[in-house]
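I have been asked to look over a protein record a colleague put together. The record follows directly below this note.
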Amino acid sequence: MKVTVFSTHKFDRPSLEDANQGRHAMNYLEVRLTEDTVALAKGSGAIALFTMDDASAPVLEALHSFGVKYIALRSAGFNHVDLKKAKALGIKVARVPAYSPYAVAEHTMALILALNRKIHRAHNRVREMNFSLNGLTGFDLHGKTAGVVGSGKIGAILIKILHGFGCDILAYDRYEDPELVQKYGVRFTDCDTVCTHSDIVSLHVPLTPDTRHMIDAGMIGRMKKGAMLINTSRGGLVDTKAVIEGLKTGQIGYFGMDVYEEEDGLFFEDHSDTIVQDDIISRLMTFNNVLITSHQAFLTHTALKNIAETTLYNLDCFETGKVSGNEVLVE
């Protein structure tokens, strides 16, 4: 089957080629799927998309007119796909439900440690031959209260890591995991309690209408003064403007983010020779207690291998009519 792969990067193409082994005719493109680029999918039976690609209704209509029947997502999230429109057009969609929860959980912990011990600031100082320790004081994680919002696969692994550091752990999830309670002393409670009683709050829930801007000005105002907020899940969970106000007043003491609500067209691209037009992220970068990574929490060799293998498995199933179990369904 001919497959057009949009948003191909140097870091993921080798793993896709290894997983494919020549089974499908893969057309690798660096450009994102948009209304302007959708014509590049002509002649393909399927397309493979990444998180920044646009599979909105107009794009799907164009894909349908070109004869594209399948969409293989190289991600767990699918909020960039109009699933109702896809269903109406008969376009099947499959995703990678899990690739490496350890990758994201470990990156989350890296952000926590780097912000706490100010590793990013210390690194920049030393490179300038400044070996002063002034302003670099951190805190012991042992004994601190960490709040994990969402205790699914990623959240559960982070809980285990935080337990190893000696943290007291609060968690919120629709489904309480008795094993986490028994083995790691997790106290499940409501989201408001988790956010308002924790020294560190880490978000690990999907983006839905109910979770959009769950961290808003009101929630930030109820958080502990100087608390740390970490988001490696979905940018839309956080009202970034409210976070900036919280940083300015000191209500938020540390902010680490790997995802951004307006990352489309910004993340995964080199803007070093241009003027970034996004005033919000430019303002965030002025705070020395903010650490931003550009959606790289998933980026490990293990995760890339798993993403590629599942993507190719989904394409194989599309071609043969087999049910992969990874289909994204909508009622």
